[in-house]
Write a structure and sequence with these properties.
Length: 661
């Protein structure tokens, strides 16, 4: 039966036959329109289509095929031949440009393409048919839109054989932005065993990064610079870390510009020495505005650094980072999102003369770092800041990039409280003195709301020889008690146990001693500034005698038998608009010789809230565990049902499915 006709295909989507939804398929070729005109004969008895001629139109380019197709359909067996002589490469590139493929987006080209190929084998899940024959490109020019550099004189010859591709010689010249011609590029490529490809390649010459920037960089990023290459490599493509490299490369004059970067990165330079065992990085330098750094490193399995998680083993890294001035706000991307997960083990040291990041401003930073896949640990860091010393350890877990986690153990030694608070809070001048503190902190999340919900901390801060006030809270206390000197309280020592949980800083059993007696406080301040405190003050008799005590007594204070002035207060409202009220019952308890019931009640309430929070977390963990066990049981039951069904099917004459094997 003779057959001829015209077929147009558009909206092509590729993927597994197991895909059930269109969104599960790769639609990068969907914008392309494939047109096929054919003439031939179909034998229904043998289910063979003999094509006298078939013309595949790709935009303005066309390719002729001939041969036979057995069992036409999704599992057809092909035996086709195609030839092309001096085809216009520009037409093929124009057609491919419509595809949503990064490597082709914005590419323009010219030159000639010739080929003599045979296509043999079945279609279907076992892989594509075999491609056998030759393909050549001659006198080609390739350039990405907007790129100041281009490739000229591109020529290559490719040989296709069953399960292999060989390009023994690739030649090109890179023309820079100024029109200068760099040292010609030459290279080779061998690929075998397409199911798990093994690649062997070589590349030599000078490369202008502007020519390949659109291929390797994000869409809005612009790269410039030159790299001198003399490289060879061999290994599994699915495990980039297994690719053994040898040779050398040198980068000079590199720059990076992007809307996502706060400043242009300039002065990129480095020397790389590759051996099958490791890569040595010497003098990797860069600067952005005032910031600059230099890195020396040794890396085994270097290409594993660029691989996706799970694609083979990690790289092993040893490094030293040095910087005279590093402001992360000048280097890190301005947009939020998941952090980059480094697939590496090993570690190194960092030495930074001055480090800034927003409100953080410290000097003489020394840090030891340990790398694991998705985890950065800092077992020891030390820096000078806020007229004191900060030291400790930290751990950053990026295993779930959408919800990174951090733990921190810090020791603050002899820091000036006002310098620290002035940098991080609006409370400049509120609290002065020498601060020592120990703190354990943990958080998880990538957004401010997630961090606020998950942030927990526990620690102890001690202040020596300082003052509290003036500020809204001490001002309101002085106003309520009619004791003006309380606007600024000098102290000998101040002890503040604290913990952070559920969006609040809880400071229970705070003690302050100084010229104005003993102060005890218990309560919490929320991240929104909300205050909830019980304050108990005992002003010694000699202090009370110096004061005009009639005003405080008239305002609501009480005196005990020893002449001490007793002040018990409730502090609520917010840090900027506090409210202070007398707690008469607490003062009467103390006059009667009993401990302040307000402090006891506040302490018990805070303990109860902690217990409730712990119980809630425990219940959530138990519910999650029960759900996981339930899913596992259901999965086991489903698996047993499938296996039983498969066995019965086989018993009664059907073929055993995979689940019954």
């Amino acid at each position: 039966m003779a057959t001829s006709g015209h077929t147009a295909m558009r909206g092509v989507a590729r993927g597994s036959l197991a895909a059930r939804r269109l969104v599960d398929l790769d639609r990068s070729l969907a914008p392309l329109v494939f047109k096929l005109d054919h003439r031939g004969a179909y034998d229904s008895a043998s289910r063979r289509l003999a094509l006298e001629r078939a013309t595949l139109s790709l935009g303005r380019a066309s390719i002729d095929l001939s041969g036979v197709v057995d069992d036409p359909g999704p599992r057809a067996r092909l035996d086709l031949k195609t030839r092309g002589r001096a085809l216009d490469l520009a037409r093929l590139v124009d057609f491919a440009n419509a595809a949503d493929l990064k490597a082709l987006r914005g590419l323009r080209g010219s030159g000639q393409l010739s080929f003599d190929l045979a296509i043999r084998g079945p279609l279907g899940p076992g892989g594509p048919p075999r491609l056998v024959g030759r393909l050549t490109v001659a006198d080609a020019t390739l350039r990405y839109a907007g790129a100041p550099a281009r490739l000229e004189g591109v020529r290559l010859g490719a040989r296709f054989a069953p399960d292999s591709l060989t390009i023994p010689d690739f030649q090109a010249r890179v023309v820079g932005a100024t029109g200068s011609r760099l040292t010609p590029l030459s290279g080779r490529l061998d690929v075998t065993h397409f199911a798990d490809p093994v690649v062997s390649f070589g590349l030599r010459g000078d490369l202008d990064l502007a020519a390949i920037g659109p291929l390797v960089a994000p869409k809005d990023m612009r790269l410039t610079g030159r790299s001198a290459l003399d490289l060879e490599g061999r290994g599994r493509a699915k495990d980039p870390g297994s690719i053994a490299l040898s040779g050398r490369a040198r980068l000079v004059g590199g720059t990076v510009e992007s809307r996502q970067l706060p400043r242009k990165i300039e002065g990129l330079e480095a020397a790389f020495e590759f051996s099958p065992a490791r890569a040595a990085v010497r003098g990797l330098k860069a600067r952005a505005a005032r910031s600059s750094f230099a890195i020396d490193a040794s890396v085994t399995r270097p290409l594993a650094l660029l691989a996706k998680p799970g694609a083979g083993g990690p790289a092993a890294v040893e490094f030293q980072l040095d910087s005279p001035y590093l402001d992360l706000a000048e280097l890190l991307p301005v947009a939020g999102g998941a952090p980059f997960v480094l697939q590496a083990t090993g570690g190194g040291r960092a030495s930074i003369a001055r480090l800034k990041n927003g409100k953080l401003d410290v000097s003489n930073v020394r840090a030891q770092m340990i790398l694991e896949p998705g985890v950065v640990s800092i077992p020891d860091f030390r820096c000078d800041g806020y007229q004191g010393v900060v030291a400790g350890a930290a751990r950053f877990d990026l295993g779930d990039p959408k919800r990174p986690a951090m733990t921190l153990k810090a020791h603050v030694d002899s820091v000036q409280a006002d310098a620290l608070l002035s940098a991080w809070t609006p409370a400049k001048g509120l609290l002065r003195g020498s601060l020592d503190s120990r703190m354990d902190l943990a958080l998880r999340g990538a957004t401010p709301d997630e961090i606020k919900r998950s942030l927990t901390a526990v620690g102890l801060a001690t202040f020596a020889h300082g003052s509290f006030g003036p500020g809204p809270v001490p001002d309101e206390i002085a106003k309520t008690t009619h004791i003006a000197p309380l606007r600024r309280l000098d102290f000998h020592n101040l002890k503040v146990p604290f913990r952070i949980e559920r969006g609040r800083v809880v400071t229970d059993a705070v003690e302050m001693r100084g010229p104005y007696g003993d102060w005890k406080m218990s309560g919490a301040v929320g991240f929104d500034g909300a205050l909830d405190y019980a304050v108990s003050v005992t002003l010694p008799r000699e202090v009370a005698q110096r004061l005009e005590t009639r005003s405080p007594l008239a305002a609501g204070a009480l005196a005990d038998e020893q002449g001490n002035l007793l002040l018990d207060l409730k502090v609520t409202g917010t840090g900027r608009a506090p409210r202070v009220a007398w707690d008469g019952q607490a003062m009467r308890d103390r006059v009667a010789g009993r401990v302040s019931q307000a402090l006891k009640a506040q302490h018990k309430r805070l303990e109860r809230e902690v217990e409730d929070a712990v119980a809630a977390r425990r219940r959530a963990a138990e519910d999650s565990a029960r759900a996981a066990v339930g899913r596992a049981r259901q999965g086991l039951a489903d698996s047993l049902r499938r296996r039983a069904g498969g066995v019965l099917k086989g018993f009664f004459g059907g073929a055993l499915g995979d689940s019954a094997r």
